[in-house]
Write a structure and sequence with these properties.
- It is a single chain.
- The chain has 492 residues and is an alpha/beta fold.
- The chain is built from 19 helices and 16 strands.
- Strands 1, 2, 3, 4, 5, 6, 7 and 8 form an eight-stranded mixed beta sheet that branches.
- Helix 3 runs parallel beside helix 4 and helix 15 crosses helix 17.
- The chain is globular, with a radius of gyration of 25 Å.
Length: 492
Amino acid sequence: MTVLDSRTQPTEAEPRPAAAPDGQAAAAIMIRDPEARLAALFDPGTVRLLTPHDDSGALAACGQIGGMPAVSFASDPKVQGGAMSTAGCAAIVAAYDEAIAQGAPVIGLWHSGGARLREGVESLHAVGMVFAAMTRASGVVPQISVVLGAAAGGAAYGPALTDVVILSEHGRIFVTGPDVVRSVTGEDVDMARLGGPEPHSRRSGVVHVVVPTDFDAIERARELALLLGDQGDIDMAAGHPGTGQDGAPDLAGLLPDSPRRAYDVKPVIGALLDSPGIELHPRWAPNVVTLLGRMAGRTVGVIANNPLRLGGCLDSTSAEKAARFVRMCDAFGVPLVVLVDVPGYLPGVGQEWDGVVRRGAKLLHAFAEATVPRITLVMRKSYGGAYIAMNSRALGATRVFAWPGAEIAVMGPVAAVRILHRRTLADVPPEKLHEVEADLAAEHQREAGGLDRAHALGVVDEVIEPSKTWEAIVQAIADAPQRRGHHGNIPL
C-alpha cells in the first residue's frame, strides 16, 4: 500500500510539543544543523540517513511523520552557505528517488546560496539534475519546501518547482541578491524587501504559507505532508464535530441578511471542516480562498470566492491561483469543495492587459481536466463567465448544490435590464427609475429562469437548506469514485 492510498489517519508514537521547543532542541535548530532540522521534522527515533553528513552541503534522510513514511533533505548552511555541490545535488536526487520508490511525500529544508561557484559548470549541471528529479516527481508524490534562510539562484527555483512553499519570517528567496541587483540596475533594496515574506506572500505568489519561526515552518510542513500523503476516508458515522451528529450547524446565519452586503467566507469554510485547515496563499489574490483541511476525516481542498475582497469577483491573479490549486488536488486525489458567490470577472483595462483571458482560461482547463470528486455549492449568486469557471456542471462537476434564493444568470437582473431596456429606461422620470428597474428586473428573473431553470435543466442537482450543507457535501464525496489525475503540477 502506498502512502497516498493510506486509509487511516495516523496517530503519533510520541507526542510533539504544540509550541516552539526550548532548551537543546531550540538551540540545535538555531545553529542551523541539518541533522537537527531533520530530527525536528521526523517522529522521534525514526530518522535514517540516506547520505553521509559530510561537506557536500546537503543531507538526505527518511523517517516517519505522524507514523507515515516520508523523505527529506536539508541544506547545510555551515558548509559554504549551503551551496549546492555536485555531491549535495546527488543527495537531493537520492531523496527524490527514495520518495518516488516509497510513494511518500518529500520535504526539502532549504538554506542555500545556490550552485557552488568553485565547481563551475559541473555544479550547474548538478542543479539541473535536481530540477529534473523534481519535475519527474511532480504529481507523483507531494513535494513541500521549507525555506529556513536565504535560498538564492538554483536554490530559489528548487522550491518554486514544488507543490507548497513554506517560509519562516527570516527566510529569503531570490534569484540574485541585493548586491547584484544594485550593481546591475542601480536599485537599492535589502534582502527582506527583495525576497522576504512580504513580497513573496502578497505580490509574487511564490510562497504559500508564512510562519514566524523555523520550528513553526517545520511543524506546518508535517501537517501538510499528512494532509496530502495520508488523506483518510469519509466517516459519516462520526458526524460533524460541531454537533456530534449528522449535519453541520445552520450556515445561513454566517451570511448577512442583505444580498448586497459583503462578508468573509472563511467562517463558512471553518464551519464545514473538522478543524481549522491550512490556507494557501492567504495574502495573494485574497478574493479567492484556497485551503486544505478535513471533512468527516477525509482530506479535501476548498476553493471559495470571498466577497470581502473585490466583492468576490474573479480576476486574472485569483484565476491563476485557483487553477494551480485545482491541479495540485487533482494530481494527488484530493476531493474539491467549491463554494460559489461570484458576481463575475473583474472588468477593466488593467485586467485585460494583465491577461485575464489567458489566465482565466487556466482555471477553465484545470476544472475541465480534473477527475477527483468536486462538489459545487452556490450560496448567493453565480454570474456570467465566472459561473462556468467555478466548477460548473458544464466543466464536469460531480454534484452541484444551491441554497434557496441563490441566483444563477448571465449577470445580475438590474444590470441585465439596464442593457436590455436601456431605451425604455431612458424615458423614465428620475424619481420613478428605481421602481421601474426593480419591476423589469423581477420580470427578467421570471423569464430567464434563474435557479428554477438551472434545476430543471440539471445544471443544479439539488436545492438544499444551509443546515443540510455538510451532510450533502460529505455524502456526495463518499458516493463518488475516488480518482486522481495523471499529470504533473506545473507552477502555473
